[in-house]
């Protein structure tokens, strides 16, 4: 994880997301389109940080304790029919901080995490309406491999 100067001369630091980040992370989750209470997010971050198969990183301004301006989370997906892959489940950069390479750096951390676990593929599923994000992934070396419908059923 590294710190480097950004276009607007703010230094951005990438570190693991921690339960104490829940308030800021919840606000960003709202910008991603998933509003959720901070307490729920705190519990989820806590659970995630105890799993070897999951990871979340925060982009912060300045040092470790700086303001959070983005986060990414990923999980290993293991199925019978193909080799394990690391799947980005959520990625968001604060609206006023977009276009400065922060999203790219968060993706790089997940890619490094996948490599560290000898997993060679990173995958992300992105809603059809998120055209800006599609442009971002394509520019970042990802390629579109399929278009799917998503089905779900409540069981509780
Ligand atoms: C997609 C997202 C994470 C990219 O983060 P970022 O820090 O702006 O990305 P970078 O600065 O590394 O890369 C910039 C590229 O992202 C894309 N981008 C998407 N939305 C953008 C925005 N509002 N402002 C600037 N660039 C944006 C563009 O392709 C841009 O490349 P370009 O300058 O050549 O057009 C961020 O725009 C975001 O949080 N979007 C809303 C949530 C979202 O769609 N998340 C992805 C879910 S799958």
Short note summarizing the structure:
With 156 residues, the protein is α+β, with helices and mostly antiparallel strands. It has helices at residues 22-32, 38-49, 102-116, 131-139, and strands at 3-5, 11-16, 54-61, 68-77, 85-93, 122-124. A 6-stranded mixed sheet has the order 1-2-3-4-5-6, sandwiched between helices.
Show the helix and strand layout.
Blueprint: E1 3-5, E2 11-16, H1 22-32, H2 38-49, E3 54-61, E4 68-77, E5 85-93, H3 102-116, E6 122-124, H4 131-139
Parallel strand pairs: 5-6
Antiparallel strand pairs: 1-2, 2-3, 3-4, 4-5
Bound molecules: coenzyme A.
Coenzyme A (COA) binds at residues 32, 91-93, 98-104, 124, 126, 130, 132-133, 135-136, 139.
Written description of the protein model:
The chain has 156 residues and is of the alpha+beta class. Helix content is 30%, strand content 25%. The protein contains four helices and six strands, in the order E-E-H-H-E-E-E-H-E-H. It has helices at 22-32, 38-49, 102-116, 131-139, and strands spanning 3-5, 11-16, 54-61, 68-77, 85-93, 122-124. A six-stranded mixed beta sheet has the order 1-2-3-4-5-6, sandwiched between helices. Strand 3 and strand 4 (68-77) form a beta hairpin. The longest helix has 15 residues, at 102-116. It starts with a strand and ends in a 17-residue tail after the last helix. Residues 2-7 have low confidence and may be disordered. Bound molecules: coenzyme A.
């Amino acid at each position: 994880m590294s710190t480097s100067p950004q276009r607007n001369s703010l230094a951005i630091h990438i570190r693991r997301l921690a339960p104490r980040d829940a308030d800021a992370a919840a606000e960003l989750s709202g910008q991603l389109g998933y509003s959720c209470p901070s307490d729920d997010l705190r519990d989820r971050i806590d659970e995630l940080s105890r799993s070897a198969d999951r990871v979340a990183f925060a982009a912060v301004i300045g040092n470790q304790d700086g303001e959070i301006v983005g986060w990414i989370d990923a999980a290993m997906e293991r199925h019978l029919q193909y080799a394990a892959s690391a799947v980005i489940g959520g990625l968001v950069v604060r609206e006023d901080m977009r276009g400065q390479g922060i999203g790219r750096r968060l993706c790089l951390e997940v890619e490094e995490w996948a490599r560290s676990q000898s997993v060679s593929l990173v995958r992300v599923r992105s809603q059809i309406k998120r055209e800006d994000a599609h442009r971002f992934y394509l520019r970042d070396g990802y390629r579109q491999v399929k278009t799917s419908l998503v089905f779900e059923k409540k069981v509780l």
